[in-house]
Specification:
By secondary structure, the protein is an alpha/beta fold. Helices cover 33% and strands 11% of the residues. The protein is built from 11 helices and 10 strands. It has helices at residues 65-83, 94-102, 104-108, 114-125, 130-138, 144-157, 160-172, 176-188, 261-274, 290-301, 336-340, and strands at 239-245, 278-279, 285-286, 311-317, 320-321, 325-327, 333-335, 356-361, 368-372, 378-382. A hairpin with a 3-residue loop joins strand 5 and strand 6. Helix 1 crosses helix 7 (160-172), helix 1 (65-83) crosses helix 8 (176-188) and helix 7 (160-172) runs antiparallel to helix 8 (176-188).
């Protein structure tokens, strides 16, 4: 039997974790305090002041009412992400890299005299090391643009947490619209799963009290221990992931709303992004009818981009019945076999000879089976 190997991430996606930074895991509550910590410089340059975000209850000049509302919401998300653990080891997806590099505020930071100021602040936040700052100062690249590229290559290798601290620094430099763009982009694509940071327990193995809070999906790198029959798995991205997530079903169908499935989908996105895959079209396809699922699967299977990657993944979350029948939101069914038939060598030539992974999260009937518990008692659960 052939074995599937998840190879080491390419260097550009490795995350240099700043887990020892004193702010990692600290449950800061927005607004951020303006007083410096022990690791922060007590003398901030006057031309680059740290903002006191408690003034946000007043309008930021130059922003519309809608933009101010978005800014407050984005800063709340940013604070929760930085206070949690989920962002610590998440690599930076390509679309986030492109967005951050092209922002007006990102370009202005490299204006005359500014690089040293923002590097000082990023070092305070733990987004860059003091050693990198010193090396960056004495670098002599062929152009300013090359030096700028070197900086962002380093920042992105540090992972998603470094990008979030970069966004925080943009806020302090009054690049408010840039902050909104970064946070909304990351949030809309579900790259960082939600965390209930206030409900965590200090006990080993503890979890949030809320059963609706998703787990913090953090992938740890493993080690391959032998065997020569492996799949090539070095493309970047490794492959594309199709996620179909049916939550709300039409009236008149026998199916109820699948509460909590949106969080399952967010966790799947976070998982596959971390191991180097790319989410197909950057989204979960929600609430699909049988016909829509058929068309979507066929389109995904025949996508020409598969020729340039080494694997594919299909995840379908819905209600189901016996014999592998999976429900669309209209109550009609498609089977798991019908989905898999779209991925033969003739139907999906770009995936011929490559691993194709299928995950079906659905009931398989109404029968019950026994569950064994630690105390010896048994219970039942439906298929």
């Amino acid at each position: 039997m052939e074995r599937l190997r998840i190879a080491d991430q390419p260097d550009v996606r490795n995350v240099e974790v700043d887990a020892d930074h004193p702010r990692v895991g600290s449950a800061q509550k927005y607004p951020w305090p303006s007083s410096p910590t022990q690791t922060e410089s007590t003398q901030q340059p006057q031309s680059f002041p740290k903002s006191d975000t408690r003034k946000l209850e007043h309008f930021e000049p130059g922003l519309t009412t809608e933009e101010n509302t978005k800014l407050v919401a984005c800063l709340g998300k940013l604070t929760n992400w930085l206070a949690g653990q989920a962002c610590q080891k998440i690599p930076v997806p390509e679309d986030v890299r492109t967005l951050v590099e092209k922002l007006p505020g990102s370009k202005e930071l490299f204006g005359q005299g500014k690089p040293l100021l923002f590097l000082d602040r990023l070092a305070d936040l733990g987004a860059v090391t003091v050693d990198f700052r010193e090396k960056y100062i004495v670098m002599s690249p062929s152009s300013q643009e090359e030096k700028r590229k070197d900086f962002f290559d380093y920042l992105f290798r540090k992972g998603m947490r470094a990008v979030l601290n970069f966004a925080k620094m943009l806020y302090e430099d009054k690049k408010l619209l840039d902050v909104i763009k970064i946070v909304e982009h990351i949030s809309n694509r579900g790259y960082i799963p939600a965390e209930n940071v206030t409900a965590r327990t200090d006990k080993p193995g503890g979890s949030p009290e809320s059963s609706t809070a998703p787990t913090a999906v953090v992938v740890k790198k493993g080690h391959y221990k032998g065997g020569s029959r492996i799949y090539e798995m070095s493309s970047n991205p490794r492959g594309y992931v199709l996620i179909i997530n049916n939550e709300k079903f039409h009236e008149g169908t026998p199916y109820t709303e699948r509460r909590g499935t949106a969080l399952d989908g967010d966790n799947l996105k976070a998982l596959f992004v971390q191991i180097g895959f790319k989410i197909y079209e950057g989204q979960q396809f929600r609430d699909q009818t049988k016909k829509e699922m058929e068309v979507l699967v066929q389109r995904f299977a025949s996508d020409k981009r598969h020729a340039h990657v080494h694997a594919s993944v299909v995840c379908v979350l819905s209600h189901g019945k016996e014999n592998g029948r999976i429900a669309g939101v209209d109550g009609q069914h498609i089977t798991d076999v019908e989905i898999e038939r779209n991925f033969t060598a003739s139907s999906a030539p770009g995936l011929a000879g490559k691993p194709k992974l299928f995950f079906f999260v659905a009931c398989r009937g109404s029968k019950s089976h026994s569950l064994y518990k630690e105390d010896g008692r048994t219970g039942t659960a439906k298929n």
